[in-house]
Design brief:
Largest interface: A-B, 16 and 26 residues
Structural class of chain B: mainly beta
Strand order of the largest sheet of chain B: 16-15-14-13-17-18-19-20
Strand content of chain A: under 5%
Oligomer: heterodimer
Number of helices of chain A: 2
Number of strands of chain B: 27
Shape of chain A: elongated
Order of helices and strands of chain A: HH
Structural class of chain A: mainly alpha
Largest sheet of chain B: 8 strands, mixed
Chain lengths: 23, 349
């Protein structure tokens, strides 16, 4: 899978989505 | 040449040698087996991997004896509502969880042994119109259930004695959740697949039950079911099965797919594709690590290596009757293959 197909990848996706999500 | 002669060539040229029959157990009192699983069971200081068999009206616990034989320890009678599924609880001992109902799950129960009063018991965990249930780590059960107005997704924590301790409600998506999978490699991440082919991601730590992301799987295969999820290199890999997929010339008859999602962008791409052997249809599958198994409508069991995308073994229907159940044991590469009459064969894979 390349980054161009899937967009920018973050190793900390779970922490970042948790911080962005409404409580 | 001798080995070649001794190795039976199975349907479609696949060979059985990757599955070695280890032992067989037969429940003579079973009228119609509905599920089979394994559970760690400790008695008199000895912890063993036991087999659990379920028929509609009872659930039996079997312990290994000498010479690959099995002895029945106990049978729980469950009453009026039929058993439809055994729900494995990872990393637990002396606890069996079952789902009961008619067409859908109406009740979840725990079967256990109480050392306090030296009795085998059963206790009620949940009732309702339950669409999906999964045992997850730290002795918890996650389930989705529907009322007329809304969907509830919640987690129940169980004590060692099988009592319900705490509950946690997860934010439900609009669509009905049909299956769950814990995300390996990310503590507190849980995914679910929905009736309209979305993947939802939750945070299931003790404080929040946030729905973090909803991502579309694609329309190609309706009602995909998630079996396993893991995170690697910033991507979320989900193993999906496609019980209702139609055969196509380009893809054959899809059984399992591994799809990589970027949870940050919700974009996805297929990674690996496993098809049914040519000429076979229908499947009811189970996935453990990179191995998948499914019962086909012909009564055969097919086994796939999901990383290779290849069917690696095919167990033909037994002369006494077709296979009805295929489940992986909770430990080691052991396949439990069951027939409707209560016979269970254990194969080393």
């Amino acid at each position: 899978c390349s980054e161009s197909d899937l967009g920018p990848i973050s190793l900390n996706w779970f922490e970042e989505l948790s911080a962005e999500a409404p409580p | 040449d001798v080995a070649e002669q001794l190795t039976p060539v199975l349907l479609d040229g696949l060979r059985e040698e990757s599955l070695q029959l280890v032992s067989k157990l037969k429940d003579s009192s079973s009228s119609c087996a509905v599920d089979v699983s394994t559970v760690w069971w400790e008695a008199a200081g000895c912890r063993e991997l036991c087999v659990v068999t379920a028929c509609e009206s009872s659930v039996s616990l079997w312990k290994p004896l000498a010479s690959d034989h099995w002895g029945k320890i106990y049978t729980w009678q469950v009453g009026e509502i039929p058993v439809i599924q055994i729900v494995p609880l990872p990393d637990t001992c002396n606890l069996v969880c079952i789902a009961l109902g008619d067409l859908e799950i109406g009740e979840i129960r725990l079967l256990l042994y109480s050392s306090e009063n030296d009795l085998f018991k059963q206790s009620l965990v949940k009732t309702g119109n339950i669409k999906a249930v999964l045992g997850i780590k730290d002795r918890r059960l996650v389930s989705s259930s529907r009322t007329v107005q809304e969907q509830q997704v919640d987690i129940v924590s169980l004590s060692e004695m099988g009592r319900c301790k705490d509950g946690q409600t997860l934010m439900p998506p609009e669509e009905t959740v049909l299956a769950f999978a814990e995300v390996e490699g990310v503590r507190d991440a849980l995914v679910g697949t929905t009736a309209v082919n979305s993947i939802v991601v939750w945070s299931v730590n003790l404080k929040t039950g946030q729905l973090l992301k909803k991502m579309h799987v694609g329309y190609s295969y309706p009602a995909s079911i998630c079996h396993r999820a893991y995170s690697d290199s910033g991507l979320l890999f989900v193993v999906l099965s496609h019980p209702h997929a139609k055969e196509s010339e380009s893809c054959g008859n899809p059984a399992f797919r591994v799809v990589a999602f970027n949870p940050k962008t919700a974009r996805s791409t297929g990674v690996m594709f496993s098809s049914l052997p040519p000429g076979h249809a229908g499947r009811q599958g189970d996935v453990k690590d990179a191995s998948a198994a499914a019962v086909l409508t012909s009564g055969a069991i097919a086994v796939w290596d999901l990383l290779l995308g290849q069917c690696t073994a095919l167990l033909p229907p037994d002369p006494e009757g077709g296979w009805a159940l295929a489940r992986w044991a909770t430990t080691s590469a052991c396949l439990l293959a069951g027939q409707r009459d209560g016979t269970v064969c254990l194969y080393q894979y």
